[in-house]
Every structure is written in C-alpha cells, then in structure tokens.
Amino acid sequence: MTTLVTGATGFVGSAVARVLAARGHTLRLLTRPGSDRRNLAGLDAEIVIGDLTDPDSLARAAAGCRFVVHVAADYRVWVPDPDAMLRANVDGALAMVRAAAKAGAERIVHTSSVAALGQIGDGTSADETTPADLADFVGTYKRSKYLAERAVLDLAAKESLPVVVVNPAAPVGPRDIKPTPTGKVILDAAAGRVPAFIDTGLNIVHVDDVAEGHALALEKGRIGERYVLGGENMLLKDILALVADVVHRKPPTIQLPEKLLWPAAFVMEKLAPITGVAPMMTRDHLKMARKKMFYASDKAIRELGYHPRPVREAVVDAVAWFRANGMLKA
Q1: pTM of the predicted model as reported, rounded to 2 decimal places
Q2: What is the Cα gyration radius of the chain?
Q3: Separation CA 128–CA 165 (nearest Å)
C-alpha cells in the first residue's frame, strides 16, 4: 500500500506523513532538489526528487501508488513573483492530480485551505457551503488556493476522479521550520516582539489534528466533497494573550486602528524587493484582517470523526519545539 505524500518536508506535510506511517502506509515522499529534510528525520520512506512545475517528475513519483496526498504548496502572504506562486499552487495541483489519476490511484486527497472558502467576516463561522467569488479573495496566496481547488474539483467531476478536498485552518505546532505565517505570529509573540494588535481573528488548529484529518479524509471522505479541518475561532488579542500565558509574559494590551498601519505596510512592501526580506506586514495583511477568519468543522466532525484538541496544546507544543530547535530562547 504505497502512498505518495507531496510537501512532506514542510510543516503540514511532515505531520501528514507521520500520521500515515503510524497507520501502516508505505510512504513515498516527493521532495524538491535541495529541500531542507530535517522534518523527515525518523521517517521510514522512499524519497523521490521532483517539482510541482515538472509534470514528468510528478508522473514518476505517482507511478505504482495506491493513494496520493497532495499537500505541497507555496504558503506565503507576500511573494516577489505572484506568477510563480500561481504556477506552483494552481498548475502544480492540476498536474499532480492528473499524474495520480493516470497512475491509477484509488484515492487522491488534495490539501486546499480555509483561504479558498467564502468568508462571512463578522464573527460568524463560514463553512464548506459559504458562497465564494474570486473577486472576494485578497492576496495571491488566497487566490491561488481558491483557483487550485476549483480547478481540481472541476477536473475531478469531469473525469470522475476519486478526489477528496480538505481545507485546513491556521495550523500551529511542532516542526514549523520556516516558520509559516501563523507560526511566525506565535514565535514573535512568545519572544515578546508583538507589542500591539489589531481587531481581527482566525481559526487556530494543532498541526497534528490537521494531519489526522487528512488520514480520515483518505479513509472516510466522500468523493468530490470538501472538509474544513479547523480548531478554535479566536480573536488575535486572545491568541496573543494565550501565547503570553504559556511563556509567562505580559500580553499586549494596545489595539491599533488599521489606518495607522497603512503607511508602515506600504514602506515595508517597497523595501522588501531591495532587502530581500519578506515584509513583516503588507497591505494585503491589513485588508485580510478586516474580516474575522472564523470557520466551522462540523462536517468533518460528523462525517469523518474529526476531533481537534484545545488550541492551548497547539501553542504549548509549538513553543516547546521552537525552544528545542534554537528559534526561541528559554
């Protein structure tokens, strides 16, 4: 029972690979040349080299695999080359699904994101049925995930492919080596580098629960369906307070109005191509923050048996991992 996992060197992908290994899957992991393989430590798996922009490499990776779990994606809020992100996330997803189908895979799980779902934004939880339109999506990443999900589901419907889609919320936990945008918020807050906040909110979930949700979708998900894999909806100020409590710091108490941050975001964006350092804050960040990114996982709980743990455990595990790996001082 060989199962191909793409993106296994990354945060979510490595968690998915470990959950599948524990379930007895024989793993084949697609990695790019030169990828940081620290997250593969201890995994018994076949490593194949390839890239989402190289369809031939995807075909070789999928050959002989019974299952394919496509986790790989470019996950950044700001990118210097938006077209490169679209090629990886949209064209790459389609190429991977086509390769898996041609290889005769019995089940294909496509990792999308809650970023691909419609948003209500007023504190009400959105779900798989919330209407969405491309014009509603702010930033290249969100647009790429929406376009990829639509393209994959359209192809699956047209060609009767065994595709199930999962939509993880913002994952937190161990092995966030980059770190991801959400992980950076946790890391910076734990280090005392977040002195203030704005009025926004998001859904936080333990990365290992997201991984468990992938396995459940592979085993129990209905073909052609989407499943939100979330945890708890929290205001940003409450997330920062939770992190502060875990690391025994005082939480930030200053709430900044959005309009004060626009000049700083503009300057950071202009400097980023010059310095080569991703901006801490962008105008897209501020636009996205206008809506509370709250989601409900009721469908996954009901149909898959998905049961996420309390968010505090995710924060505790993330902080412990950052400390153990020298990214956060004790």
Answers
A1: 0.95
A2: 19
A3: 10
Q: Which two tokens stand for residue 64?
A: 């002989």
- Per-residue pLDDT tens digits for 201-256: 999 999 999 999 999 999 999 999 999 999 999 999 999 999 999 999 999 999 98
Write the CATH number of the domain with boundaries 2-175+203-235+294-313.
3.40.50.720
Instruction: Concatenate the DSSP letters of all residues of 36-91 into one string.
Output: --GGGTT--EEEEE--TT-HHHHHHHHTT-SEEEE------S--S-HHHHHIIIII
CB half-sphere exposure, 167, CA atoms < 13 A: 27
Could you report the per-residue pLDDT of 14-64, keeping only the tens digit for each?
999 999 999 999 999 999 998 999 999 999 999 999 999 999 999 999 999
The residue ranges of every structural domain in the chain are 2-175+203-235+294-313
DSSP reduced 3-state for 196? strand
**Residues whose CB falls within 8 Å of the CB of residue 65, separated by 6 or more in sequence, listed in order:** 2, 3, 4, 28, 100, 103, 105
How many whole angstroms separate alpha carbon 243 and alpha carbon 280? 19
Helix (H) or strand (E) holding 108: strand 107-111
